[in-house]
Automatic annotation (TrEMBL):
EC class (word): oxidoreductase
Binding site for NADPH: 11-14, 38-39, 125, 127, 208
Span of domain DXP reductoisomerase C-terminal: 264-380
1-deoxy-D-xylulose 5-phosphate reductoisomerase N-terminal domain span: 5-133
Pathway: Isoprenoid biosynthesis; isopentenyl diphosphate biosynthesis via DXP pathway; isopentenyl diphosphate from 1-deoxy-D-xylulose 5-phosphate: step 1/6
Alphabetized InterPro entries for the sequence: DXP_reductoisomerase, DXP_reductoisomerase_C, DXP_reductoisomerase_N, DXPR_C, DXPR_C_sf, NAD(P)-bd_dom_sf
Keyword Cytoplasm among UniProt keywords: no
Organism in which the protein naturally occurs: Paraburkholderia eburnea
Protein name as catalogued: 1-deoxy-D-xylulose 5-phosphate reductoisomerase
Pfam families noted in UniProt: DXP_redisom_C, DXP_reductoisom, DXPR_C
Assigned keywords, A-Z: Isomerase, Isoprene biosynthesis, Magnesium, Manganese, Metal-binding, NADP, Oxidoreductase
GO MF annotation: an example: 1-deoxy-D-xylulose-5-phosphate reductoisomerase activity
EC number: 1.1.1.267
Amino acid sequence: MQKRITLLGSTGSIGDSTLDVVARHPQRFSVYALTAHRNGDKLVDQCLRFAPEVAVVGDAATAQDVERKLRAAGSKTVVSYGPQALIDVAKSDACDTVVAAIVGAAGLEPSLAAAKAGKRILLANKEALVMSGDIFMDTVRDSGAVLLPLDSEHNAVFQCMPRDGAQHGGVTKIILTASGGPFRTREPSTLVDVTPEQACKHPNWSMGRKISVDSATMMNKGLEVIEAHYLFDLPGDRIDVLIHPQSVIHSMVSYADGSVLAQLGNPDMRTPIAHAMSFPDRIDSGVAQLDLAQVATLNFEKPDYERFPCLALAMKALAEGGVASATLNAANEVAVEAFLNRRIGFMAIAQTVDAVLNALQNRSATSLDVVLEADAAARRAAHKIIDSLPVPA
Ligand SMILES: NC(=O)c1ccc[n+]([C@@H]2O[C@H](COP(=O)([O-])OP(=O)(O)OC[C@H]3O[C@@H](n4cnc5c(N)ncnc54)[C@H](OP(=O)(O)O)[C@@H]3O)[C@@H](O)[C@H]2O)c1
């Protein structure tokens, strides 16, 4: 049966890769809704190609512009805007599958709406799970939604997990691999001078700007440890991070008998996207087959927590529990944006997140409102700290 898709964040990097897979399989997939924030022109192009019923943007002015361009081109796609419109397309009866690919906390409420509505959710928006972990997973369980990870590491772990019904079936550890980003070997004392352009230049993956900076600080891996904790129900001390610069092994699962199962492939998000979209079938993703003879060497090393303090901060937030992960995430989002706007230096990202975690009291994440309050408080605290920091030269 054809899957009808709402693609939240269609104009982003994951959005592009998802639409590439959709276009390869018109018999299997059709598009119900596409959403963007401000990039109306790209959304118009996508609507003309994929003819969704609904398109959503962030504000009225962008909606008006998109609508005018669509009508001029003869498109019947209905255009709406704002956070409620995102929630509406995520929970609509007209779709069965929701690809959650909005970046950051803005993705939480529509992803949660999809979970409440019992959809098949393909989750790229790790921030949603980092913020609301137990609430999100409880909602998935209660509604009977199906949650499939799109993050390449979590998709790899999912592929290596036991399928025999035993919840953990002899699993001892999850090993999340990490490329180490663009600054793995850079002299630590020079990291203060890093520019946004350098931070966004990932050696192996082409991604949006926020996740690229998160990869450079390794906050991304920290967020992934938290994501893995909730997705696979394992404590933080059974989730290891291993630097693997080639990004060929996307992650591994260790078993009690000494076996380690790994998922390998070329670093291209279309592989995990195609896997999750067609699961349990396998379909062509457009990604070239892996040539191990050409790769020749696979290297591994331990992460350097001093060079990458954000990784340690995320582990600490996970260990603390409550709203600490939501606080960490919000502070990081504000700090990364400030870095991308050249308001603070690269090393000030970790400094800001650390200061916010220390300044705010942790509490239990008893409801979505509590999580959203923690998110707002962390953003206020982060802005205050950033205001007190010098502008980089
Ligand atoms: N890229 C990857 O390879 C990769 C891999 C694993 C996981 N992920 C995760 O996937 C998510 C998306 O990453 P990405 O790299 O695709 O990001 P991206 O390229 O920056 O795209 C983000 C998407 O979200 C939309 N958006 C931004 N702010 C929004 C808001 N306030 N409200 C509604 N929509 C908003 C953007 O719309 P506009 O274009 O209009 O701004 C765009 O469609 C992130 O959570 C990331 O951690 C990404």
